[in-house]
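Recap from last week: sequence in, structure out.
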Amino acid sequence: METVAAASVDSADAQFPEIVIGLVAPYGTPLTYFTTTLSGMLKAKCDYGTELLRLSDYTKLFSGLADANPSSGVSEGARGAAVMTPGERARELAKSADVSALCAIKDIPERRSQQDAILPK
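Predicted structure tokens:
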């Protein structure tokens, strides 16, 4: 008779199970339908809450690199440049292509709280 070792997971060890999904797409790609659908499915099927983080928002953290949001009425090209240029400059200064992703990684633990934790069913 064979003995098979079964892995057991104590629910106390997994107090904050989570999934982090990164989507990468060129500027202007309409991801809203996809992210809304994915969030709805994760909630309906697994009772997971979701939070959307946009890497372009982290460029506002870099002192002197982020311009004010472009005023309404500017072209889409000007609006896109206002969002992308600070990120490009931050990557140059940091000599790291992943500087915005690192900001998000640092931000994730700061957004967690025990009261808001949703455990899957």
